[in-house]
Amino acid sequence: MKTMTEVVPVKQGDYPECVKELKSNNLVQTLLWLLIATVLFVIYSRQQDKSSVLVLMQMALIVVCAIMGVVNLFINNNKLVYSPTGSVVKKQLYNFNIAMKADLLLCLEEGNVSRLRALKTDDAGGLLVELLESDDHLFLAARLSKYEPHGYVPKTDWVIMKSL
User: Fold this and answer.
1) Where does the pLDDT of residue 61 fall: very low under 50, low under 70, confident under 90, or very high at 90 and above?
2) Cα separation of 154 and 164, whole Å?
3) Which of 33, 52, 106, 116 could bridge to 68 as Cys pair (CB 3.0-4.6 Å)?
4) How confident is the model at residue 9 (pLDDT cuts 50, 70, 90)?
5) How far is Cα 156 from Cα 67, in angstroms, rounded to an integer?
6) DSSP string computed for the chain
7) 148-161: per-residue pLDDT in tens?
8) What are phi and psi of 41, to 5 degrees?
């Protein structure tokens, strides 16, 4: 069975109420990397012999710290969290053939994720099941979406699954 866990842009309100978006601020971490690079550069600039191996290694470390600082500016660390326990929630996507719609709706109605995961997936199918599962395995929700000309459109609300 093919599954894909991926980070997708989080839109407030697209998830059950007990799942919240946790935004992390990368600014502090970015400034820390750049501060380390600056301090190392000041130390480097005061050294007399700039051709020794240790000084060259220090220069490489300065470059790495500066790159880490710049790259960190562009990293998006938003994550979903299950509010009652604070556990991180991962999103899994399963594609199914349109002919599987009745079986998928039955799985969602029963809340049986084991049966849902046992169904044959089809990457070219027109249905998408999104699963939200917390790392502590205390929360699992699913939603069925159908492909339409402008993308996948949810056809069911989020269903809290009973069996993990």
Assistant:
1) very high
2) 22
3) 33
4) very low
5) 44
6) ---EE------TTSS-TTEEEE----HHHHHHHHHHHHHHHHHHHT-S-TTSHHHHHHHHHHHHHHHHHHHHHT----EEEETTTTEEEEEEEEEE-GGGHHHHHHHHHHTBHHHHHHSPP-TT-SEEEEEEEETTSS-EEEEEEEEETTEEEE-S--EE-SB-
7) 888 888 888 888 88
8) -70, -40
Question: Tokens standing for 131?
Answer: 């699963």
What is the signed CA dihedral for 79, 85, 90, 93, rounded to 10 degrees? -130
CA 146 to the chain's CA centroid: 22
116, 98 in Cβ contact below 8 A? no
The gap from C-alpha 92 to its chain's centroid, in whole angstroms, comes to 10
Q: Taking residues 46-58, what's their average pLDDT?
A: 83
The answer, as to whether pTM is greater than 0.90, is no
Residue 64 amino acid letter: V
